[in-house]
Amino acid sequence: MWRQDRVCDVMKVVSRKDLIDAFHNLKHEDDVLMGIFGVVSLGIWFAISPFILAIIQLGILEYEIARFSAKCRQKRERIRRDRSLELMCLDSKSRKKKEKHKTRNRFLRWCFGARSQPDRAIRSQSSGPCLFFTRLPPEIRRQILIHAFGSRTVHLDLSFRHPFRVISHDKCRLLGQSPEAHLHAGISTRFGLFHPNIVLYDESEKKKWRWFSCVCHRARPHDPLLSYGRRSSVNHLGSTDNHEDNCLSGEGTCVEWPGEVPEKCFIGATGWLLACKQAHDEGIEVLYQTNTIQISSPVLLQGAHDILSPFKLSMIRSLELALDGFNVRLSQVLLGVSPNRPTSSSGASAPLQTRKPLFPSLAFLRLFLKSDQRFLDDDFRDSLRQSRYGRKNTEERLLTFTLPSIDDLVNRIVSPTTDVTVTFREWMFYSLMDLKLAEVQGLEETRLQRADIGGLKFWRKTPHSGLEQQTSDGNGSSTNKLREGYWVHISQMPKTGGGIDEQDEERRKLYGLD
After folding, report:
1. What is the mean pLDDT of the chain?
2. In 3-state terms, the chain is what percent helix, strand and coil (to 5)?
3. 256: which DSSP letter?
4. CA 492/CA 490 separation, integer angstroms
5. pLDDT digits (tens, 9 = 90+) for 436-480
6. What is the C-alpha R_g of the chain?
7. Whole-angstrom distance, CA of residue 177 vs CA of residue 500
């Protein structure tokens, strides 16, 4: 209404008498033409201005409706994500209840003979003995399975997303022959300005919790092979560490590995695991005990023990956790994502002497801090603010907050016999700790040396070293000493990236680099 009133006011000002007086005052023909053009333009504007304002209002209304619908859609997706995640996080009582229902249904089917025809067909086909299990001894079978899908670093990811947009097999093979094509797992990507690759998703399907697993191709085949499929980057400046790992973004060194893309980017053990029960049991044992599991998903970093069964957690021998400091803080790692999870003696609130490790059989644990400055405080913004106060304040925060937080995390999730390595990304943060701890702990306790995985490392002695830990299980309780310490590591970097140069004679002498 206010726009219509405004138009009426303007029309009153421009009356007929004013227009006639204006034409009488014009002295030249050009002025007459300009006056006529101005009057016509003004009339056209007054005629179409309500339509223009209506179109603008419709555009604003459409924008508000789209914005409101997007908020509602995000809210529905968030509710569906939380509900589906809660269904995956079954506690011990729910698992027992679910197994009880399965056993009862199996007993009823056995009593009343309710078997489906495909089930009978499968039973009749698999009734004969398998020569692979009857002729070959277990040791030979295990070596075959390890050669088939063992001794690798495997990415394990769980995220609430659309499915990946996958490139066709013919195009994968065509691009896989080019060294410039960093193609991995057939994931379709496009070039990004601030990121090497931007993953493309198939938005025609709804978002849901999706599992994804692939072989890690951040290393190269000529890198030295360590235990459990780990790779070393010693004397190879071209090799990348976990900080430059972009396998989940569709980028890797797949072209240097033998095989065809994208088949060589996956383990391909699904068919074997579904063959029979014995094949499943032996295959699962090889998958979890001979491979290194690499986790960077925020959901798994917070609640892998809520989603994976305790039996699978007990089989893992080598584990890598990549923390970005933004989605998951050090105090949130493996504390659980299920709100209905009952508190037990293995939780964070239990005393240090009575905690039961989440990975009791773990031999190697490696923690990657992808952004060192994000771990100077428990709050993300305060952490970034702490790194701006100079080297002295950064050193104090590293020694009083970051390392003690890592001490609590390591003592909570793994046993004292696990070899733990904490990898920092930037040389500045590492250089603020190695000589300082060597001065406090002593050179013999600090043990400055080269790392077998590449780079340098020193020993961090935990303050709880020497105390006894009591753990209880179904057979009774046991007592052992707490962890003595863990390794603090920096990946191998070229001299231009801030590595040890020839002028730092003290550090080169302590590490034995001369």
Report:
1. 76
2. 50, 15, 35
3. G
4. 7
5. 898 888 888 898 988 888 888 999 988 865 555 554 444 555 555
6. 33
7. 38
Token duo for residue 94: 């729910």
What does DSSP assign to residue 261? Answer: T
**Beta carbons of 183 and 197 less than 8 angstroms apart:** no
Instruction: Show the 3-state SS of 112-176.
Output: HCCCCHHHHHHHHHCCCCCHHHHHCCHHHHHHHHHHHHCCCEEEEEEEEECCECECCHHHHHHHH
Residue type for 243, please? H
Instruction: Write out pLDDT tens, residues 295-351.
Output: 999 999 988 888 888 889 999 999 999 988 778 888 888 887 654 444 443 444 454
Cα separation, 276 vs 278, in Å, equals 6
What is the reported pTM?
0.74
Q: What is the pLDDT of residue 18?
A: 61
The mean pLDDT of 473-489, rounded to a whole number, is 69
DSSP code, position 359 = B
- Asked if 219 contacts 245 with a C-beta cutoff of 8 angstroms, the reply is no
If you write DSSP's letter for every residue of 300-335 in order, what string do you get? HHHHHHHHS-HHHHHH--EEEEEE-SSSS-GGGTTS
Question: Between 29-88 and 298-307, two packed helices, what is the crossing angle to 10 degrees?
Answer: 20
Distance of CA 483 to the CA centre of its chain: 28
Tokens of 25: 């005052």
- For residue 117, the model assigns a pLDDT of 41
